[in-house]
Design brief:
The structure is a single chain. By secondary structure, this protein is an alpha+beta fold. The protein has a single domain, classed as Ribosomal protein L17 (50s Ribosomal Protein L17, Chain: A, Alpha-Beta Complex). The chain is 41% helix and 13% strand. It has a 3-stranded antiparallel beta sheet with strand order 1-3-2. A hairpin with a 6-residue loop joins strand 2 and strand 3. Helix 1 crosses helix 2. It is elongated.
């Protein structure tokens, strides 16, 4: 049974896995969306969501906790300054995973992970009102008036 085993091991030693997830998280923070295999993306989601939650409260302790995981000053600064401001009101679910199909070379399932509020296509706040199709108005036929003399 796999009860309470949250870590996806990815076939790597713990040091390699932590370094890889830190690099992927830094890239996600910098570019706002990245492509990778589905398993790595799912592991990254578990890794990055608590960091975004910590970034909503900007204090020295939370910055140090995030830096210990990310190991990148620029990524931590971007996380606390840009990302936390944009998705600060959201109670959770900061990332979205979109499956992209299989990779051509080895048939690995690929996926894209992105921050939810940075995609204008899917964001609900920027919905434009649907344009109503103009109704074709038929020209009104005037009834011929009978002239009476």
């Amino acid at each position: 049974m796999r009860h309470r085993k949250k870590i996806i091991k990815l076939g790597r030693k713990s040091a390699h896995r932590k370094a890889m997830l830190a690099n992927m998280a830094s890239s996600l923070i910098e570019h706002k969306r990245i492509n990778s295999t589905l398993t790595k993306v799912k592991a990254l989601k578990v890794f990055i969501e608590p960091l975004v939650t910590k970034s909503k409260t900007d204090n020295t302790h939370n910055r140090r906790l995030c830096f210990s995981k990310l190991r990148n000053k620029i990524a931590v600064a971007t996380l606390f300054d840009e990302v936390a401001k944009k998705i600060g009101d959201r109670p959770g679910g900061y990332t979205r995973i979109i499956k992209l199909g299989n990779r051509m070379g080895d048939n690995a399932s690929m996926a894209m992970i992105e921050f939810v509020d940075y995609n204008e296509i899917y964001s609900q706040n920027n919905k434009s009102p649907k344009k109503e199709s103009p109704k074709k108005e038929s020209p009104k036929k005037e009834s011929p008036k009978k002239e009476s003399k």
